[in-house]
Amino acid sequence: MRKKIVAGNWKMNNGLIQTETLISELKQQIKTSDAEVMIAPAFTNLWHAFEATRQYPIEVVAQNMHYAENGAYTGEINAGMLKSIGIQTVILGHSERRAYYNETDEALAKKVDTALNHDMSVIFCFGEELADRKAGNHEVIVQEQIEKALFHLDASAFENIVLAYEPVWAIGTGETASPQQAQDMHAFIRKVLANKYGQDTANSVSILYGGSVKPNNAKEIFSKPDVDGGLIGGASLKAEDFFAIVNAF
Ligand code: PEP
């Protein structure tokens, strides 16, 4: 059965004290859930978060990493550094990184390879812009993003890849894709995977939805058959809202 996942992307929010506070609130509220719970704090707080959640069913994941093994890349973090503090999973391809740091599909393909070579898991994000959706090109764009970054891989690599469909027009805007729009795109993504790797692989990959998921819309989005969870930005910064979303399963 596919994994159900709710992952909180904290982005560039929360210093050490706020991280400690939010994690202790999460620890108080976490219960066994059908969904795996992940949080992605800033790099500076990953070690603390990892240590603080050791005995709890919360996985601490990274928001990004470089594709190189090491070297003269000032300000960057590599896979080995993440692994050295216990981090097993990295988010790659977030639309904010694509937009503000010019992350191309080609660079993302390299990052995915590096993560997998280090036995890490990847939450791979992609999604169309509003103009693409309006022009009816959303499926073409999404297919291209997936193909360019992932389709050089063997089917077995998908055991360690979770996909996150995040329409750019829905991220941080308060505008959510309708549950049906999410379902339609997730079903399309599964078809794209099935055409390349076969139905068994396509059925085994978890596909998360991201884009203004809130306590009041999570249940309906998660009720769709091809939606296996959510990547949550803004609402993951408040323990109460985050757990309302986790409990929507
Ligand atoms: C995100 O950035 O991955 C995201 C989904 O953000 P938000 O929930 O705030 O739209």
List the helices and strands and how they pair.
Blueprint (H helix, E strand, L loop, with lengths): L4 E5 L6 H14 L6 E5 L5 H7 L5 E3 L18 H6 L4 E4 L2 H6 L4 H13 L3 E6 L3 H5 L3 H13 L10 E5 L13 H19 L1 H6 L2 E4 L7 H5 L6 E4 L6 H8 L3
Parallel strand pairs: 1-2, 1-8, 2-3, 4-5, 5-6, 6-7, 7-8
Helix pairs in contact: 5-7
Bound molecules: phosphoenolpyruvate.
Phosphoenolpyruvate (PEP) binds next to strand 8.
What does this structure look like?
Helices cover 41% and strands 14% of the residues. It has eleven helices and eight strands. The chain has helices at 16-29, 46-52, 79-84, 95-100, 105-117, 130-134, 138-150, 179-197, 199-204, 218-222, 239-246, and strands at residues 5-9, 36-40, 58-60, 89-92, 121-126, 161-165, 207-210, 229-232. It has an eight-stranded parallel sheet. The protein is globular, with a radius of gyration of 17 Å. Bound molecules: phosphoenolpyruvate (PEP). Residues 9, 166, 171-172, 210-213, 231-235 line the site of phosphoenolpyruvate (PEP).
